[in-house]
Amino acid sequence: MVQNKTIGISAVAGQPNTYQIDVLNVWDGDWDGGKPEDRKKVADFFLRQQCSSMEILSDTPVPSGTYAFTSKQRVKHTMLVRCMPK
């Protein structure tokens, strides 16, 4: 999913241990980027190596039209996550 830009992660400049995680609201089998609990799983997965725990500071939906060949709304959720280092 990272390769096809469904999910993106980057460190936030000037804010130590803070990351921006972008997740599109796509469905992939038993995972749905439109669900808050599945977006939290993404954050847990990507940050588990360096974080003992984390706090989701914000989760902002950004609509960007519809998906091709459907009327489903395309929404990118931008999360800011603070990591408590191990």
Key features of this structure:
86 residues; mainly beta; 1 helix; four-stranded antiparallel beta sheet
SSE succession: EEEEHEE
Q: Count the E strands.
A: 6
Structural class: mainly beta
Helix content: 10-25%
Radius of gyration: 13 Å
Kindly describe this structure.
- The chain is mainly beta and 86 residues long.
- It is built from 1 helix and 6 strands, in the order ββββαββ.
- It has one helix at residues 36-47; strands at 7-11, 18-24, 27-28, 31-32, 51-66, 73-85.
- It has a 4-stranded antiparallel sheet with strand order 1-2-6-5, covered by helices on one side. A two-stranded antiparallel sheet has the order 3-4.
- A hairpin with a 6-residue loop joins strand 1 (7-11) and strand 2 (18-24).
- The model has no long low-confidence stretch (mean pLDDT 86).
What are the SSEs and their pairings?
Blueprint: E1 7-11, E2 18-24, E3 27-28, E4 31-32, H1 36-47, E5 51-66, E6 73-85
Antiparallel strand pairs: 1-2, 2-6, 3-4, 5-6
